[in-house]
Amino acid sequence: MSHACPRAVRMAVNGRVKAPSTPAISEVVSDAPDTNWVPGAQYATEGHHWVPKGVYEKEPLKPETKKVFDNAISGPLADNSVNRWNAEHRKYNDAVQETFNAFLQKNNIAPQQMTPEQAQQLVEEVLGSPDPRIRGLKTKIMRQMLRYFLLRGPRGGDED
Amino acid sequence: MTTTKNDRNRAEKIAIFEQLRHRVDAILEKYGRPDSLSRQGDYTVHGDYNGHPQVIAFIGKLDMLRSAVISELHRLIKEFPGWEIEVTVAVREHYDDWPNMGLYIRPHEIIDGLQREYLPKEFQNIAYEGARRGTAYD
After folding, report:
1. What is the ipTM of this complex?
2. CA distance A22 to A140
3. Residue numbers in A near B51 (CB within 8 A)
4. What residue spans define the domains of chain B?
């Protein structure tokens, strides 16, 4: 079963990030975090790896397969990503891990046999996952992507 | 392409982040098994730099909160002025019934935000040298 993958997220795969055209600015401003957020201040550079870097690095993947996961990244986020002892990222990792193991089983392969094409399929599965552990964090990340583009523009601007 | 001062600054911070997260991982690997894409382990060191001078470790095995482990992390962070290690308690069986809790390990202090009343008895008396009680907003 395939699930719709939001446009903004699809565009972010492989680092190809473009400014999404929705939603309205008023809606985005209303999404601003309650604390410690200063427009225009502090931007992260890399964003979020859709297949978490801290865990795929622990697998014996082929270099060209690993490269697919390296490049499957959200792109820059407006930075309110302070974690504050929140376990949400580990829950997300657990859900991606279950997706990965189901993928291996379905395709009858071991991690070291995964091809770059299969890695790309896995990324698409993660992005389209209806699992609330994945969808919840993905929604937050998409908001941060959107805020970044609204504040900085698609080329990221320059603070110098 | 012009390399701006800001780009260079970011690159430097990412380089420090990469160095620090691998060293945190090396310490934690002595005390537990890392999560991987195919296996549930005891901890994860977050791999994405979030723009803050910090490395986040999610700890699922409470033994890894022992003072010997935290002291080792504290010794490490003293080599990285201005950076911190955020230890987040993330126990799978208690994702939904424990509050957010953890530690900030900084070169000059440890902020202790463990809510010990939720922990099993044998962990309720854990104490860290140089620590003060605090919250996630410290």
Report:
1. 0.92
2. 15
3. 42-45, 77, 79, 81
4. 5-133
